[in-house]
Specification:
By secondary structure, this protein is of the alpha+beta class. It has two domains: 225 residues, 3-Layer(aba) Sandwich (Rossmann fold), CATH 3.40.50.300; 123 residues, OB fold (Dihydrolipoamide Acetyltransferase, E2P), CATH 2.40.50.100. Helix content is 23%, strand content 36%. It is built from eight helices and 20 strands. It has a six-stranded mixed sheet, with helices on both faces. A five-stranded mixed barrel has the order 11-12-13-20-14. A hairpin with a 2-residue loop joins β4 and β5. α2 packs across α3. The complex is composed of two ATP-binding proteins (PotA), two transmembrane proteins (PotB and PotC) and a solute-binding protein (PotD). Belongs to the ABC transporter superfamily. Spermidine/putrescine importer (TC 3.A.1.11.1) family. Part of the ABC transporter complex PotABCD involved in spermidine/putrescine import. Responsible for energy coupling to the transport system.
């Protein structure tokens, strides 16, 4: 991504701990006002990258620029950043107003001006009535909003968030996702957010930086990663997917004809943006919700048959777990209907999909 004056930029940034590569040389550009999420499993490098940006650890090589200034060796307080942690980090002996005003006091802002700024951010997080309470008198969600208010009050260039919702229950976490998204939209602040929660990343982000093994696996919008993954890892990590081994039989622009390996199925899929050639071994990704049960035998293009191993109703969605002739598992998800025919384990079912709902991925 090319940006004339990026808010944040890393160039060949890397970090090792002995023989372990925590972060391979990484280039990243974050424009002004973007909500970028660093997503990935444990050990993928996302927290290492965030720590380097924050100045909590120092890289072995590479550089970090904020607002065009090289801060690679600068102290955290010299970087004009704010941090929000999972554990809130509020001072228990101070009132909420005093907690929020603390960074302003450190910057020697006049008391009257500080009070006005505290009032402003409390209104923004919709908690103006808790100013004189202590942190222990607030719920977990309220404390997290106060931690965010304390971070925003001095208007940092970039806000870094490290798993800020990890300690909250699911319902509260869902509410806070929308709250943080609203605040970001109102402020226009640049946010770099770390999580391992796929749904959280999809809900909140302008772009997702999916990391794996200390490297960026794919960087793009949530839609890019979900509908056009570049690698099997991306397809498998983000949401539920069926990955079928196949060989390219024909190429016509973005439409690719394939032969499914170990199966009698054949059909068409769409490119994920990569170039493919006839004879190339690939993976075909089909999301469970894009496969549909049909009557009749397989044989037509984009149809497969499999043996039903289990059928569960999760509420609004029913999931059918199948085993194909080559022993590969397959999942089909359909809307639950009260009058749907009942299926039994061992029954042979036929599934189909549309060309545009299957994506080719280099193996």
């Amino acid at each position: 991504m090319s940006v004339a004056n990026p808010k944040l930029q890393t160039m060949q940034l890397s970090k090792r701990y002995g023989d372990f590569v925590a972060l391979a040389p990484t280039d990243l550009v974050v424009p002004e006002g973007e909500f970028l999420t660093l997503l990935g499993p444990s050990g993928s490098g996302k927290t290492t990258l965030l720590s380097l940006i924050a100045g909590l650890s120092h890289p072995d090589a590479g550089s970090i620029h904020i607002n065009g200034i090289d801060v690679t060796r600068g102290q955290p307080y010299e970087r004009d950043i704010g941090m929000v942690f999972q554990n809130y980090a509020l001072f228990p002996h101070m009132t909420i107003a005093e907690n929020i005003a603390f960074p302003l006091r450190m910057r020697k802002l006049r008391a009257r001006d500080a009070a006005r700024e505290v009032e402003r951010v409390l209104e923004m997080v919709r908690l103006p009535h808790v100013a004189q309470r202590l942190p222990k008198e607030l719920s977990g969600g309220q404390q997290q909003r106060i931690a965010l208010a304390r971070c925003m009050v001095y208007r940092p260039s970039i806000i870094l968030m490290d798993e800020p919702l990890g300690a909250l229950d699911k319902k509260l976490r869902d509410q806070m996702q929308l709250e943080i998204k609203r605040i970001h939209r109102e402020l226009g602040t640049t946010i770099v957010y770390v999580t391992h929660d796929q749904e959280e990343a999809m809900t909140m982000s302008d772009r997702i930086c999916l990391m794996n093994g200390g490297k960026i696996e794919q960087l793009g919008t949530p839609q890019d990663l979900y509908f056009r993954p570049r690698t099997p890892f991306v397809a498998d990590f983000l949401g539920e997917s069926n990955l079928l081994a196949a060989t390219v039989a024909s190429v016509d622009g973005d439409r690719i004809g394939v032969t499914l390996e170990g199966l009698s199925g054949h059909g068409g899929v769409m490119s994920n943006g990569e170039r493919f050639s006839v004879g190339q071994r690939i993976k075909v990704m089909i999301r469970p919700q894009n496969m549909h049960l049909v009557q009749g035998a397989a044989g037509a293009a984009n149809t497969l048959q499999g043996s039903l191993t289990d059928w569960i109703v999760t509420g609004g969605v029913s999931k059918f777990y199948m085993t194909l002739a080559n022993a590969q598992p397959l999942v089909v998800a359909e809307l639950t209907r009260g009058v749907a025919a009942r299926h039994l384990p061992g029954e042979t079912l036929t599934v189909t999909w549309q060309d545009g709902e299957a994506v080719a991925i280099p193996e």
